[in-house]
Amino acid sequence: MDATTYFFDLLKVILPAIIVAGSIFLLFRQYLEKDTQRRLIELKLESNRTTLPLRLQAYERLTLLLERISPSNILVRLSSAGQSAPDYHRALQQEIRAEYEHNVAQQLYISAEAWAQVKQAKENVLTMVNRAFHALPDPQHARGTELARRVLESLMTDQNDPTAPALDTVRREAAQLF
Questions:
Q1: Is 25 within the bounds of a domain?
Q2: Which of 117, 119, 122, 114 shows the shortest CA–CA distance to 93?
Q3: How many distinct structural domains can be found in the chain?
Q4: What are the UniProt keywords, alphabetically (predicted)?
């Protein structure tokens, strides 16, 4: 048997084996890729089942925070009767900051834009209260009711609730979850 015939006989055996092995390799690789994709989709679905309730709760809590620190609501909740303006001013500031700090962990579950809006709303309310306090004729001797009246007047004059933009952003993002 000469070398050429031996080579062709060997090629007849090896070439189909290489083709079959290559086909099996490609099929197996496709199977593994699809299996990996399926597992990733399952993980994402499981993650959504876990995080969706947490995200919804975060949006609920932030909505409650914004409602609680809105000037019209906080003035009703914290009575100014019998308090001096400086005491009432301090109480308003403490309540706004406490509400915010109580909900600071919710930023993990919302977008950076929404959290920035919530922070800005808190700052806007504090600024409104501070401006009203410093606009009093004699802030150190004024009554708390005068401060409350000034804040409400400021709210009516601006005709813009400082928490409204943040509340709209939070509501819009929560609606996108569905």
A1: no
A2: 122
A3: 1
A4: Membrane, Transmembrane, Transmembrane helix
